[in-house]
What does this fold into?
Amino acid sequence: MANTISYPKVNAKSSDLVLGTSMPLPSTNDNPRTVNFSISQINGLANSPDIATAKVTVTDAQIRTLGTVPVEILPAVTGYIYEILGVTTQSINSGGGSGYDWSASGDGVIYGLQSNQHRVEIPNANLPAGGLSPGEPYVATPIAGSFRNGSGVKVSTTLGVDPTIPIGQTPVAQWVINITYRLIQAG
It folds into this structure.
């Protein structure tokens, strides 16, 4: 093996490579591999080590009772709080040309313990329609506020009211929610 002290020192660039070992995923029979990592890849890990994204699909049955039975997106973790960094949602509509009526429900809300604290609001017009056409993706920005230690993250409506279904209509939808968050140990 070469004596590494004999190599010159230079300032690293993001495209420079570092030799390392790529570890296999758990529960596989793969072996570790010697590979090159770029400085930019390493920086990306160092700058966001605790940021994660979860994808949740809210079913049609859950949508119909969303105001009165909130759906858990992230489970409570004792000794930690969630910082919601961003949310994207998209409705997958497959109904018979009709839709849910959200007018009495208020907006959608993704929150911790109480819907008026650190939360993300999804406007009424961007909630699942249940009609024939797919919904447009919606990008939501978190609203600052307090968050209870050990609280999970749920989705509901701001007024706690389920959507209504107009007589003779048959809405059907699923609602895909991608939430980016950081789990922070409570002091």
User: Anything to note?
Assistant: The longest helix spans residues 39-47. The first strand starts at residue 17 and ends at 22.
